[in-house]
Structure formats: structure tokens, C-alpha cells
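Journal club side-thread
Mid-discussion, someone asked how the predicted structure for our own chain would compare to the paper's figures. Pasting it here so we can look after the session.
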Amino acid sequence: MPHQWIAAVLDTATTGGWAIARSPQGFMYDSQGVLFARDWLKGLGLPILFEHGIGRLDGQPVYLIELEGPVTLENCQWQGLRQFMLQADFEHYRMLAYAAQVGTWAREHRFCGSCGKAMVQVPGERAMHCDRCDLRNYPRISPSMIVLITRGDEVLLARSPRFVSGMYSTLAGFAEPGESAEECVVREVREEVSLEVRNIQYRGSQCWPFPHSMMLGFHAEYASGEIVPQADEIEDARWFSIHALPPLPAPRSIARYLIDLYVAQRLGLPEPVLPG
């Protein structure tokens, strides 16, 4: 039976429950996974920056303990969130994704951006507060679009210099102030590959905690133009037949979902489910 994860703000003044340990190098884990007895972990004298209650797993409270840096504990190791995402059988990825966003936000808002004073957690609310400026900061969500462009049985896929060797994916980019998601699609496609698109259709969204994006997924049809990759952003871009695709993004990603969805629709196969 799958575990049930529910995000929530919890009171850190209480004792007990489970804890996840995180540092800039990732999450700590051992042979049993990423969850540790909270009171035991807090009793080790670790360099703790802060603690946030992040939700409940099967009804049990779970807390994020953010450390200044990785520590050495017997039989424990550190691993980044992307590595957990690539483990198809890792069942707690959504919990870690949420913890990563809370941890990044809290780490970056320990001090007021207006006056520099230390901020404090607001009880019962996911917010940091400066009592001098009365400024409140909430977790940052950055909207971005991701789009699969198609031309019959062909899909346009591209490579960023940051990708693993050989992998191709869909186009993506952050929304600018004042533009709609659809306008972002048109602009980003034009900037990255010099193409024009039409019939833009929304397909779904996905939290993308690297570090705090909300990916808005679209499908668009090719309208006109020749591929001209954007310098320094796109290493290569080309049309691929749905019958001969290159190495693709991880199955948990919305990029992979957009590709698999279109292939399924063209071939009359069962449609995939958008990853949570």
C-alpha cells in the first residue's frame, strides 16, 4: 500500500515524529531511507540552522532539519534531490521535493531583505517575519513554461549544455513580468530555436523543486521557420520521429510526460499519467 504524504505547517515546539536532514549537498540517508527519529537526530549536537514542520506521512509528523553543511555519521550518506528523482522506485520523492523548496526558501530568508535583521518563523504559517519592517516572506514560486512542439509524427527536441550526454528534451523558460504563459511559450520558442508556433494547448503543471519552479506544460504545433539554436543556451535542436527518439528526460518529469503523451496519442496507446 503506498504511503500517504500530506504537506502541512507543524509546530516545532513539540517533540517526537520523524525528521529529514538536509544540507547544501542534499539529503542524508541510510539503509532504511531518509527518515530518522527526530528526537534522536536533534540530540546529536549537529550544526542545525533551523527546523520546519513540513507535513505528515501516514499520519505521523515529519520535520525538516536544515544543517549548515554535511556531517559524518556512521552508516549515513548524502545524496542530491535529482538522484532521488531518478530512482523510479523511491516512494518519498514528493516529500523530499517539498522539503527542498521549504529548506531553500528558509535558508535564503533568514535575514530581512529590507533592513538585514534576523527573521523569525511565523507560528502556524509558512512565512518568515521581520518585526522591525513588518515584512513577511512566503515560499517563492517561479512560473515557467515547458512546451513540446510537434509536426505530424515529428517532435522538436533540444539539448542544453547542462544536460547529461546524449539526452534531448522539450523547450522551457521562465515567464517574464507582464506576460501570460502562452505569450511566454511564443517568446521562448522564438528566442531558443527561432520558430513560430500555433494552436498552443495547456497539458498540465508540475512542481519542479530545482529550486522553486512551477512548470506549466503545453503542446504547440509548428507554424513556420527554420531551426536556429540560441547561442550559449541551446547546444543542439532538431526534429525527431516519434519512432526513433533519442535518450529522454526522467520518467518523473513533466518534459517526459509531454513527450510520452503525444507519442501515445499518435500511436493510439494508453495515455500516461502526469507525475505528481
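Post-session note: The mean pLDDT is 95.
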